[in-house]
Design brief:
The structure holds two protein chains of two kinds. Chain A has ten helices and ten strands. By secondary structure, chain A is of the alpha/beta class. Chain A has a single domain, classed as Rossmann fold, CATH 3.40.50.300. In chain A, helix 3 packs parallel to helix 6. The model of chain A has no long low-confidence stretch (mean pLDDT about 95). By secondary structure, chain B is mostly helical. Among the domains of chain B are: about 220 residues, no CATH class; about 210 residues, no CATH class. Chain B is built from 24 helices and six strands. In chain B, strand 2 and strand 3 form a beta hairpin. In chain B, helix 1 crosses helix 8. Chain B is globular. The chains are: A alpha/beta, B mainly alpha. The structure holds adenosine-5'-diphosphate and magnesium ion. The site of adenosine-5'-diphosphate (ADP) has 11 residues of chain A, from strand 2 and helix 1. Chain A: Belongs to the ABC transporter superfamily.
Chain lengths: ~230, ~625
Amino acid sequence: MLQVEALNTHYGRAHILQGMSLQVGSSEVRVLLGRNGAGKSTTMKSIIGLVRPTSGHIRFDGQEIAGEEPHRIARRGLGYVPEDRRVFADLTVMENLEVGKQPARGGMRPWTAERLFELFPNLGRMRDRPGGRMSGGEQQMLTIARTLMGNPRLVLLDEPSEGLAPVIVEQMAKAILALKGEGLTILLAEQNLHFAGGVADSATVVEKGRVVWSGTMAELRADEAARTQYLAV
Amino acid sequence: MDSLIPQLLTGLAGASSLFLVASGLTIIFGVTRIVNFSHGSLMMLGAYIGWSILTRLPRDPEWFVLGILLTVLATALIGVVLEVVVLRRVYRAPELFQLLATFGVVLVLQDVTLWIWGAVELPLPRPRWLRGFVEIAGNRFPFYDLILIFVGPVVLGLLWLLMNRTRWGTLVRAATLDREMVAALGVNQRTLFTSVFALGAGLAGLGGALSLPNASANLNIDLSIITDAFVVVVVGGLGSLPGAFLASLLIGILQAFGIVLVPKITLVLVFLVMAVVLVFRPNGLMGRPQAEAREATAAAPVIRPAPRELRILGLVALVLAAAAPLVAGEYYLTVLTDACVAVIFATSLHFMMGPGGMASFGHAAWFGIGAYAAGLLMQWLGAPMPVGLLAAPILAGIVAALFGWFVVRLSGVYLSMLTLAFAQIVWAISFQWVEVTGGDNGLLGLWPPEWARNPATFYWIALALAVSVALLLRRALYAPYGYALRAARDSAMRAQSIGLDVKRLRMVALVIAGAACGLAGAIFSYSKGGIFPTYISIPHSVEALLMVLLGGLQTVAGPIIGALVYTGLADILVRSTDLWRLVLGTVIVLLVVAFPEGIAGAARRLWLRGREA
Ligand SMILES: Nc1ncnc2c1ncn2[C@@H]1O[C@H](COP(=O)(O)OP(=O)(O)O)[C@@H](O)[C@H]1O
Ligand SMILES: [Mg+2]
């Protein structure tokens, strides 16, 4: 469904992504693992178009999207959940969801605020609260819900467990599994191997902007050498 | 206190008009982050278009309303064209270049308006139904002012509904907070920005059309209203509609009472209020700290010493410049003298703006202070030119130190606006304090002494001073002080943590820049033989910005090249065409679109690329 091939991305002169390649199949949950600064977020920003890759290919449903504008990419059915949440602080929960709203796509049950409140009951209890006055966990739920309002077919989820209390991380994992149950395709970025293990089917490990390991989650569990070498666990 | 109520009502009516213009400006800034200098021009167009429509319609109330609405539509449409043709191309350019581009638009619209409607101001004969008076508390009060008083809150209410009760408004508010995220959620920013601009332009048009019955359509509207609107927007807090409304009330009422109580210093009063508000609330009454519009921005390149070839080129240019009087006639010598003044003017602004990170919109203030210092010393004490040239920078430096207390506490757009406001205060003083400054007629008879009166001699003096100032500023830039200053610009917090006194560094930069610029003002006055308030006008301040930005911020040679190119260009233009504003404005816009890093920056890039290849 999503193919990234030999992607290079620069920030100014710094060469960050150095030939990234990865694939995400339909209804697959793939996790992008790697240490802080490995280039996970940059990969996601390159895919959604927030940073323009210098070369390489990004294909979504077989169509080249590298270099396209973010809103066009998003409208193709690619959802992006940023790592630092970026909820609109002055807007209420309902308004945040409104911003994310896009027309429904054929073949999928469209997301509504009510359906999302079933997924994240906390949000349903604070519909009129400004995003800026929510806890970190609530904001993380809101930012995911906001992206889902666009009825994406594939979601880029950047470190949804980062900085959250263990209970919340637990809830987050449940929510992601529920989304997976709906058939949503997900590319997840994580440093938390435990969290990733609970939700992902397959993994791609990155280091310094390059893929150093790729396989199924079961293979990664078996490959202790890779885990210690690349992930220090 | 009989006059209290009518004065209050007049103030409220003025506040409404201010709000119409300021609300559009603040909405546009909120979303696009563009400080739109041409907003006043849109109001001016609104007044002219309104005049053209209203004078052709029957003079009944319902036709009047229709005419106003048509005007709003027309200006909104012009706003769309402006956004699509110009602004859309500069959203990614640095803030100041955007500002410059919108100033280019101001110039273009000036000439276009002049060309379509002529230079004579166009009053709108008030229809009878608008001429009535209403009695309030025993005072007769113009009916039309009452209408205006109502329009302000009504527009505020409608805007509030639009912003809070529609999807469009929600998207606009979201984009104000984080436009990149909005795009990543699938919202087309382009249409959003265009529609926001249309709304803002329409509001400006409304303000212009509604101002007609009390005033007239004239060519001064653009710059006079834009200053007031800037003040309102800044006092209210950039991007805040309720803030703009509150500030409009404050400023409107202040102006109304000021005219009665202290007619001479109304302008000063308004800007003092602005300064005080900004000191206590650096983000305006209802503004928030600017969460810098999130966008991946590249760090400012470091200023590096020029390559050797460039230095040799500079030396050759200097030798040629010194030899110029051997070939150039008297006319060209005055142009060259102007160029020397321009070099000081621009390098001094560059010093505080590039390395100092303080973009001044009011640099002409120091120019004027230096000029008047020299002029008044001569008038009062008969001080000769050398004394004047010495006193000008000293005085300008002292004033800069006083004013600096306010400035170094602010940053970004707020800082720029405060400098603009300060320049307007200085301008107001020079313009209104007729007994001392001669007002509009200026101070005359300021000639160089006998020995320097020869154009060639005077040119050499100017050249020597310009070269010395440029070298001194360059020296300061590469001294430890310069590095500290740049560290403070790049990250005030980190600079502080390694023990640098950021406020003090910036203060010193301001004083140096102010003093150098004061010298430029004095030289200029001696070369022209007089001093006029126009030295301190907004367009003159913008000229300094133009020179610096033309040349580029990232090189030391930039402002010098910018000053020379600008002086040459302006000279050729003014002599060859009546439409020089149109041409200059267009050139500015094209330059900003083509070279967002300035001429010198682009040249340097090409040069380096050529050598790498
Ligand atoms: N806006 C930026 N400008 C310059 N460098 C950046 C920027 N964002 C990230 N980087 C650098 O790019 C590298 C990869 O960062 P990132 O993609 O955020 O890594 P990860 O998400 O895996 O932690 C890091 O070295 C980081 O310092
Ligand atoms: Mg990251």
